[in-house]
Every structure is written in structure tokens, then in C-alpha cells.
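Posting for a labmate who doesn't have an account.
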Amino acid sequence: MNHRQRELLRLLLLREEGALQINDLAAELSCAEKTVRNDLDRLEEFLEEYPGTWLVRKPGIGISIEIDEHDRSEILRLLLSSEPKTVEERLFEMAFQLLTSKKGITLQYWADRYYVPKATIKKDLETITEWLERFGLELVSKQRVGHTVQGEELKKRNALAHLSELVPTDKNVVLDLFFSYEIATVRTALKNTQQQFSIGFTDEAVESLLVHALVMIKRTRQKAPVFVTENEIEATENRTEYSYASWFFSQLEEAFQLKFPKGERVYFTWHLISGKRLEEGTQLDLQQNQETTDIVQALVGKMSKLTLYPFYDDSILMNGLAVHMHSVINRIRFGFPITNPLLSDIKRMYPYMFSMVMLSLEDIHPKVNMEIPEDEAAYIVLHFQASIERLEGKREVEKKKALIVCHMGIGMSHLLEAKIEQQYQEIEVVACIEKAELSDFLNETKVDFIISTLPLEKVKAETIVVSPLFSQKDKKRLSQFVKNLQANKRDFQQGERSFSPFLKDGLVFFNVDYSHRYEVVEMLSMALYEKGYVQQEFIYSSVNRERKSATAIGGGIAIPHGDPSLIQRPIVAVAILKEPLEWGNEMVSLVFMLALSKENQKDLRDIIGKLASLSEMPAVVHELTETKEYQRFTQVLEKNV
């Protein structure tokens, strides 16, 4: 057989249920239908060597193979022996088979199929077992039966949709397990549905809907439907998105010659409701209820109090959160967990904002009766971080107030003023005066700096001397002057806040030896309570916060913290671990317990920023972990951050 015929045989063997149409096979193999028919004749000759195996051709239904499992395994082994799979490809295929097979699958079947020892298959199954547990599924092994996955159909579909997370990969491997014509058909139907109803999903949401639809088609063919209650059906049928799903299903039923149960329509409607929307135009059809509004208001309110940023003034944030939280709420309600591939990066890049969001979500949890996991929280962090950058951006473009002192008369003064304001949008000229008026003017008016055409003595304000004609050289000097002013201001503000006021001898612990991060957090918070810095409830609060999301920020550093309202006096406690300790997905050697109340938010932002910088200095972190006494520790810390 040639390569095309081998691929045709592989496609037929992998289709365990249902038939394949000639035109679909031709599209999959990129050849003419006549070529497929000729190749089928060649396959019939090949299959004559396997008694009890034959090709089934039914007009109007399609092509399939009647074959027992032993022969299927043997033929696949022969096909695959010349095309060995990578470990990753084998794991994905095995997990997919387990989640979609009604029968048990034996070690021998896989050993024959992938041409590897049974010991290798056992190791693969250990990896798959651990991954399945994340979705509440169990891999069960029975003698002479094989391996099966036990659990609800909804959980199996969630696992199938997240198959790419079984081992690290940069592509959506689930799509590799379906035919290209199936993918193209569903993708077109999704595109048509969006156009028909003027709805817009993000690219990420479209890919998710595509995967769920493909899984749904396969499971419908296998007669493995999801279970939904009558109450769920009734509630979902009243949603606008149910009409979108019905229109979408009409396209699929025609294309695949399938009849979907009502439960599948409800199930896919849940995915449409939960999908991330593009913000434009969403207000027309999101059906945002009071619950969404309450959660957004509570979250923004808590974040504003914690961070002292006026988030309510940012309409972009409010609108964006309303759209985003609509999807978050429904994903949690319908049991569609997500994994955020950016989680560790977001925690490392924005440790302060991540901490504030997690604290806020914990605080509003009792009010909204919904617990939002850290993978969802990380996406919420991006909304607030973008808002801060917008708010900070507004502050940065606030015009610097400049006073012009010119000794060449009013005409030259206004010419100089016009040139500066035309070329520098960030500068506002508050007045043009002569040198003699300077003292009285400064007593009454505050300015950021002075632009003078002559040297000035005994003036406290920052001053730059330029030519009255404001040459190109003057322009460059003024640009650099303004940049230096801004840089000096930032340095001054940061220099005002450091670790020193918040570190105390007796609250920096050396050679700390525990087996779990919770024990370290409990030890530090207990020390703070015993010395009167926090209320007793802070101990539970900090450990509970750590349980929800590991506080490692990279570079061997962790920053546990608790509810700011339980802090009586601001302080930072430190644990230098005897040996690096597993802290979530990282190894940690330095632990900074941050006990800073909302009145110290500027200090907290600055300290977390310094710790984030420290996490990128491995040599300094190593030097700190090697210290054995308080004074040396603080010297190294202050010197470097």
C-alpha cells in the first residue's frame, strides 16, 4: 500500500462507531472521490488476509470496517510501527481513548498499538491517572477487562476539552484527534452563528466552543449524552443564548446527519453563556442580572479601599469587568473550570495586584456566595492592572507648571511661551514675569520649575536657563530637564519607603525548618500575634489565603499575608529557610510575611515592588539566605533593594 492508502486505512480503523462518507474521506486525503474508491478496492484485497474482517460499503450511509479488536490492534500496530509516536502523542491518544471508549482497554492493546513495553504503558497510565483526578475522574483497572474511566459524562467532557493540559504543549492537541473536515464544518457553523445574531466571542472562546462542539458530536455518535434536569432545561430554554444554540445545531444536524438530544442543546447553551465575549455590542444580549452587577460593585469597592486607587472613575474597567465577570460567574455555575496558562507569570509580574485581588475576592465571597479560583483571579488582575496604568498614565500626562522669567520684554516672553506650549504638551506656562517680580510671585504660586533667560540666584525652585529665541539646543536641554525632574521625583518617592521601618530584630527568623509552607505561614503569623502586631484571627486568615493560592513570586521568594483589617501595627516578618521548600509550583528559600494595613498601601506597593525586583537577583537572594544574624540581613537587603 502507498502512503495515502495507509492513511485511509488508519482513518477507517480509528472510526470505531459510525461510517465515513466518500466525500469526507476525499477531503481528508486531499484527493478525488474516484481515487478514494480505487483505494478502497486495494484495501479490500489487503483485508482478505484477516478472516472475519471486511469493508462495509452502504450507499447513502458511508464506509466502515467490520473488525474484531484483536485484528484492529494488530493492523494498527503494523501501521504505527513505521510511524512511531512521541511520548506526548501517545499520552494524548491514550487519554482520548480512555475518555471516549465504552469498553475497558488492556495494557496489551496499547503495547501492541504503540509497539512499546507494558512497563512504559503503566508509567503513562500513572501520568493520566493523576491528570484525571483534577476533573474528579477515576481510572479503574480490572483483570481481563482492562482500564476504564469512571465519572460523570460532564466531567469526562471537561477533561477532553482540556486534553492539551495533560503535558505541556503549545498547540491545541484535541483538534489533532478529529478530522479536518469536521473541524472546518464546526468552525464555519460557529462563524455563521456569530454573524447571524451579531454576537462576538474572543478568539480563545471560539476555540473553546469549537473543541466542546467536536467532543459533543463524538459523544453523541457514541450515544453518551450529558444528563440535565428538567429544571435546568426549563431555565435554559428561557435564555436568549438557547436560540443561538438551536440555530447552530440546525447547521450541525444537516452537515453530520445527526440528531442531538435536547440535553446537548442545553449543554452547549451553557458554553455560549460562559464564553468570553468581545466587549463591543455585548450590552444588547448579555442578560446581565443583578448578581453580576453586585459582584462587580463589591469587587471594585473592596479593591478601591485596599489599594486607594479610584477604580470607580475608570469606565473602561467597569464595562470590561461586567463583561468578564458575566462569563466567570457562569463558568463556575455550570462547572466549566479553566486553567490559566499565564497564572505563574501574572503572579510574578504583578504580585501586589494579585495579592489585592485575592484578598478582595476572599472578602466578598460571603456576600456573593461564590468562590472564584486563582486561575480566574489572574485574569481579573489584568483588568485592574490595566486600570492602574490608565490612571497612572493620566497622572503622568498632567502638565508640569512652569514659570517663564524673561528679561527682554513682554513680546519676547510671549513668543517664548508660545514656542514652549506648542512643542511641549506636558508643560503649562502659568505666567511670564520679569526677574524683579519673581520673589513675590513664588510666595503666592507654586510651580514645578522655572524657565529663565538669565541666571537666577537664591531660588529654591528647579531652574533651567535658555536662550530667548529657544534654539534646537535649548529644546533638547529642556526635554532632558523635564525627564530628570520626573525621574528624581520617582526616586524620591521610592526612597521615602524602605524595609527598615518595618523590620524588627526578633521577627527575622534564621534556619527555619518545616516540611510544609502552611507551617511557615502559621509560625510567622503566630509570632506577629504574640508580639501584638496582629489580631489572633490573622493567623487563620493568612493560612487560609495561602491555601487558596500559593504566594510564591519567583526567585525563591514568597510573600504570604492576611486580612489587612486584622493588623494592629504594620510590620514585616521574615523566615530564612534551612532548605528550599515547595511553595505551590516553586521552591522558596525566603519568606516575607507582609502585615501592612490599608493605611500603609503605598508602603505595601513599594515593598512588594522591591521584592519583585529582588526575585530577579539570584545572587542577592543567595547572600540573604546565607546570613545568620539580623544586622547583616538588613544591610544586604537595604543595599540591594
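Reply:
Got it, the C-alpha cells are right above this. The first helix runs from residue 3 to 14.
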